[in-house]
Amino acid sequence: MLKPLQLIKSRYLIVEQAGSGGFSTVYRAEDTLLGLPVAIKVGNAGDALPMRREAQFLASLKHRSIPQFRDFFEHRTTWCLAMEWIAGTCLHTTSRLPIRQVVAVGSQLCEVLFYLHHRTPPIIHRDLKLANILLSGDTLFLLDFGISSYPGLNAFLGGSRGYAAPEQWLQTDITPRTDVYSLGMVLYRLLMGRPFPVPGDSTTHVKGEHPPTLQPLVLSPGSQPLLDLIERMTRQEPTHRPDVTDVWQELKHIADSDGAAE
Ligand SMILES: Nc1ncnc2c1ncn2[C@@H]1O[C@H](COP(=O)(O)OP(=O)(O)OP(=O)(O)O)[C@@H](O)[C@H]1O
Ligand SMILES: [Mg+2]
Q1: What's phi and psi for 171, nearest 5 deg?
Q2: Can you list the alpha helix ranges (DSSP code H) found in the chain?
């Protein structure tokens, strides 16, 4: 636990805690060498591997919707990842959005997922959820590469309840379409103003459990083309889901048509 005004690595001055999750705590800090604000993600003591993996992913990525990597270092018994500070609002605090805005959020997320899925080898984010998305001005930022991985790797890292695809629950092979499933859940949550009802504590991670049978999506008037798309994105069988390029195209189509009118 770091305290405000604490200086670490003789360089980063802690300002305040910005967030925390199951595996880490994030602080807003000032890089006193460069005079820039930074976010410092501090892993739980002991296990360096998850933080190193996240730092490696972030350091290899360059996209306007992904915070820039700044530093990775050890502080006492914990590992710290310093990255660009994003002054924004977490989508977790958002209520129901008009269809046009849901489509706009979906399109920006497709852009960043397209970038990740077309790298060699492709990167699967694996933890797409509102708590990992920040809105800064008109730009969305995708955070938290803490459980990101490559296709084919066994899904031993699980995923977030309410967003995780069946293959994450079952710990079978993940593919880029694992992210498409979670994106479908994100769009559902924004469209309906409530999470898709999944049994269990929504803050816990799924791991080696049988996925629940989900109820069919509840339809609301006026949003049919978008709900149809979400239904296909959240199919149980990954190969029955569209890929991110198809989703992006369909969202453009909905934006251009009356389907985005509220
Ligand atoms: N670069 C950043 N700029 C500003 N705020 C950030 C940044 N990175 C993280 N945060 C804040 O810290 C919170 C937690 O960050 P992150 O999701 O990376 O941690 P986590 O411990 O992996 O969370 P969880 O286990 O819940 O997924 C975010 O929801 C966000 O509010
Ligand atoms: Mg997170």
Answers
A1: 60, 40
A2: 48-59, 99-117, 166-170, 176-192, 224-233, 244-256
The single residue listed with the structure tokens 């996209």 is 63
Comparing 32-36, 82-86, 93-97, 108-112, the range with the smallest average pLDDT is 93-97
Domain boundaries of the chain, sorted by first residue: 7-84, 89-261
Query: If you average pLDDT over residues 79-100, what whole number do you get?
Result: 94
Q: CATH topology for 89-261? A: Transferase(Phosphotransferase); domain 1 (1.10.510)
Is the backbone of residue 138 left (phi > 0), alpha (psi -120 to 50) or beta? alpha
pTM of the model: 0.92
Q: How far is the CA of 259 from the centre of ligand 2 (A)?
A: 32
144 by Cβ neighbours in 10 Å (0-12 / 13-18 / 19+) ranks as: buried
Mutate to test the pocket of ligand 1, among 144, 202, 204 (most ligand atoms within 8 A of CB): 144
CATH 3.20.20.140 corresponds to the domain 7-84: no
For residue 258, name the pLDDT band (cuts at 50, 70, 90).
low
Residues in a beta bridge with 25: 20, 42
